[in-house]
Amino acid sequence: AGADGHLSVVYTQSGGETAELTLLDFLDGGAGSGEKITPPRKIATGDTTQEQWSSDGKTLFYLSTTGAINAAPATGEPKSVPYRARLSYSRSAMQATVFQEAWETLRDEFYDPKFHGANWNTLREKYAPMAAAASDPQDFYQVIDLLMGHLNSSHIGITPAQPFYSAVNGATLPTGALGVVWDETYSGDGLKIGRVIKDTPASQAISKLNAGEIVTAINGVRITGDTDPDVLLADTVGERVYLDVTGTDAKTREVIIEPVSYGAVRTLLYEEWVDNNRRRVAEMSVGKLAYLHIQGMNKLSQDRFEQGLYAEAHGKNALLIDVRDNGGGSTADYLLTMLSIPRHAYTIGRDGEPGYPQDRLPLYSWYKPAGLLINQNSYSNAEIFAHAFRAINRGDVFGVPTFGAVISTGARRLLDGSTIRTPGRGWYTVKSGVNEEHTGAEPTMPIALSPADELAGTDPQLSEAVKTMLKASKPAVLPAAKPARYAEY
User: Fold this and answer.
1) CATH number of 91-164: 3.40.1710, 3.40.1130, 3.30.530, 3.30.750?
2) What are 357-416's pLDDT values in tens digits?
3) Class of CATH domain 286-343+357-404+440-472
4) How many Cα atoms sit within 13 Å of 348 on the Cβ side?
5) How do strand 370-374 and strand 397-399 relate by DSSP bridges?
6) Residue 18: what pLDDT?
C-alpha cells in the first residue's frame, strides 16, 4: 500500500497465462472505515518490474516490458515518464563486485558445505584478480565459469544479462529446414534425399520431395560438393524457397517450399521415434506389452504419460517405460504415484468384471508389471525416478547408467543483471544414503546402444527389454467375476 493506505497493487492472472498489474484505489480512511472502495483498475498487461510508490503514496511507478518508466496516478490513465540518464562506472570495480557476489552466493547456498572438496576461500583469492582484470564480458564470465568448475557440480552456471551475440551480426538467424534427411553417401553435385520426414514441408503434396531425388539448386544457387545448404537456407523459416529438383526418372522440376524451424523438425523426429518404438514393442510382444516414453519431467509429459496409460497401456499385461534422453524436471513423485497406489479392494458392477473406479483415484493407477529404460542422457529428475524405481522394486531397469546429475537448483540475480544458478539441495538414496549427484542410477540389466546400432536403426536396449519382460510378465490374475460370498444367492 501507499504511505497513507490510499493505494494498493496486486497481481492477477488472465487465463492463467498473461500477467496483469491491477490497482486498488481505497478512499481516505481505508477499506476498514466503511467508506466505498472503487473497483479494481487494470493498469498494465504483461510482465512489469520494479514497482515503486512515490513518496506521498499516491502514484505507482513501474517498468514495462519495453523498459519504459510508467506512472499510474490515483486517477487517470498511466503515462510514460520521459527521462534521460547516464551511468558511468569502473568496469574493473563492477566485475570485482559481481565476482564477489557470485562467490558469496555459492558460499552461502551450495548444498555441500565442503564444496565437493574444493577450498572455496583459496579459489576466491586465485580468481578474483582475474575477474577484475578481464578485458570484456565474455572473458569475465569465463573466469566465473572457471571458479564454478572446481565444484564439479551439475545444475550450476551463470547467464549474462545480455547475450554476447545478437541478430545484428546474423548469429541468431534461424536456418530453415525442409524436412529431409540427406544421403551422406552421395558424392556427386547436388544433395541427394535419403528420406522425407513425415508431416514436414517436404512431405506435403504442394511441395512434395521424394527419397532418391537430387536437389541441384536452392534459390538459383547451384549446389556443388563444397556447398553448405544451411548457408543457403539461413533466415528462410516461413519464406518461399525455390528448389531445382531432379527426380528419380531424371526429369527436372521446380519445387516451391516454405521451410520450418529445426526445432519443429526435431519435434517431428521425436514423435516419429516414439511411434516406431511403440510399433516395435507391439509387434515383438504381439500386443501384450505397452510402451510409453516420458520426454521430460514436466506437467505436459506427465499428462501425456497418464493419457497413455489409458489409451496405450489399458488392457496390456505389462508396461515398458522409457526415460532415455529425458532432461529432467520435477514430476518423479507424480509418476511414481501412478505406479504404486496400494490395491486394497476391487469393485464389480452389475454384470461387470472386477476392476476399480479410476475416478476415485488422484491419478491413474498402473498395478501390473513394469520395466524402465534408461541411458547416459537420462538427467536430473529422470535419474531420481530411476533410483526410486529400483528402490521400490517396481521392476527391471534396462540400459546403461544415467548421467549422475541430481541437485535441486534455484537462481539469484547479481548486480550487473546476470543470473547465477544455486544448487542448494542434494538428493540421497534412502537405503544406502548414496549421493545421487555423481552417482548415476544403475540398470539391473546393462545393455549398450552403440553408434553402429543407431546408424543401422536397431535398438538392442528396447529389444532386450521386451524379450525379458515377456518372459517375466504374465496376465494379471483377477478375482472371479462372482465372489465366493455371492455363491449362495
Assistant:
1) 3.30.750
2) 888 888 888 999 999 999 999 999 999 999 999 999 999 999 999 999 999 999 999 999
3) alpha beta
4) 12
5) parallel
6) 59
